[in-house]
Amino acid sequence: MHRSKAEIDRAQRITRIMSVVAGTCISLSCGTNYGFSAWAPQFAEKLHLSATQTNLIGNFGNLGMYAMGIPGGMLIDSRGPRWGVAMGSICLGLGYFLLKRAYDAGPGEYGMVTMCLASLLTGVGSCTSFSAAIKVCATNWPKHRGTATGLPLGAFGLSAFFYTAWAAALFPHDASGYLGLLGFGTTIMTAVGMLFLSIVSTEAETKYTSVPRKREESLDRAFSRNLSTNSSNRSRVSSPTRGRNVSGRSGVNTPELIREEIASLLDVSGSSSPMPGDIDAAYHSSSELSRNRSLSGPELKRDITGWALVRTVKFWQFFLMLALLAGVGLMTINNIGNNANALWHHFDSGATKKFIQSRQMLHVSILSIFSFLGRLASGIGSDFLLHRGFSRMWTLVVSSGVFLIAQVFALTIGDPNYLFMISSLSGLAYGMLFGVYPALIADAFGPSGMGINWGCMTLAPVLSANAFNLIYGSILDAHSTLEYDEDGHLERICDEGIACYHNAYWVTLAASVCAVGWSLWCVAREEAQARRERTKWERDEHEP
After folding, report:
1. In whole angstroms, how far apart are CA 460 and each of 32, 147, 496?
2. Closest by CA position to 327, among listed 527, 115, 59
3. Over 80: is that where the pLDDT of 243 sits?
4. Does the reported pTM lie above 0.85?
5. Residues 233 and 276 both lie in one domain
6. Alpha-carbon dihedral of residues 523, 524, 529, 534, nearest 10 degrees?
7. What is the pLDDT of residues 273-282, one digit of tens each?
8. How confident is the model at residue 134 (pLDDT cuts 50, 70, 90)?
9. Are residues 88 and 181 in the same domain?
10. Region Disordered: which residues (predicted)?
11. Rounded CA gap, 397 and 379, in Å?
């Protein structure tokens, strides 16, 4: 039976909403690598691993998470998002169950290669599943990408807290139970979410395509015809950009605005009520069209991907920023448990192992919760800024500033009771960073190649995070000694307090200072470019 346009729109709305919910559930199992500090100290203690060896295992998780971005993106872009989630579900289960077997078997039974491979699989699974969820949300809601991607991004940040809280309730002080929960939970949640994940195609969707100058007159004529034939519809046609500030600030998402204008010119039917994320047929005056042209020129930006991507200055601008800040954040995320261990051994020699483990899990939870808040705030907040004529890039300035403050605290706080200031600010800044980045990449290079583009971008933290983590591990090992614990087992202990890791944070402090300067330069460059384009097109429009 033939369905009306309204019925089709309602069905698409339901599918889009279900896909966002599914993507959010999938993402809730994709950030478990950030709970590494909750089980790694017990893992290292039982298997007699040094801090450097432990960080190497953690680094392989990061490597899988970030280096798999390009091949995972190619799979998702070519075969569809469900293929990425299916692969991720299998890898997550294999990785965590291998780590569980290694822990249960005890020291010497599994080599470093096997444990690093298992950690790599957890990162690969997280990457492909998460990339698929982000691809669907960014594609299905083109005009609200910050908000739509903010939900799965927020869930990704909350993932470590979600599993840590369940592990604390079901398997207190039991790393084996925690790893088993991760294996079962991540596999089941991603597999179920995959069933409801799909990309919705709409007639109104358009890509970034070139509009030659010679077509401008035909577009103007099309606008005039639609204006005369659809004047009766003006009162019932919704315009999502009518109240938007288009004064020419650098942050205006000009390609998206122009796509909306062209959709308005070619089809102002008002046949159905628009839903959030649709590219609606909306009424705009010819002066609005001219003003938008003056912001971006007569040609719309094509989608950029593949080798063309790496030849753009903007790609390297984003790449360097992500490398600096993600490396800073991951060092604290992977080592907050070691921070707590070192500070409590120095601050209170009577602190029991179980007490310190509970503090470690507390800080993992704090990191996760604040990462969730940061991701949600920056995704929605960047949309708010954009719709008022500001650039999303200002969110990166704030993120790098918060990172800088966190490094200062890490260099000065020696009382473990105040360690929450470091974990909360680090989680918040890291969440803000990744909460806005997918929207920035989609805006800058287009949504059709989002999988590959985001995969290229996630290579950025591979070198920086590995370098910072290994620096931290080598510094901690240099201050640690082998001692017998309360149970009579040998373990590496550093009782020098903040001196155990102090020098590592000088490195991340320098990186944070560079990131603040770099983000401000990026905003200034964007504003200068917008001014030049605006001046050029205003001059061209006044020429006869």
Report:
1. 20, 24, 33
2. 59
3. no
4. no
5. yes
6. 100
7. 333 333 333 3
8. confident
9. yes
10. 222-252
11. 14
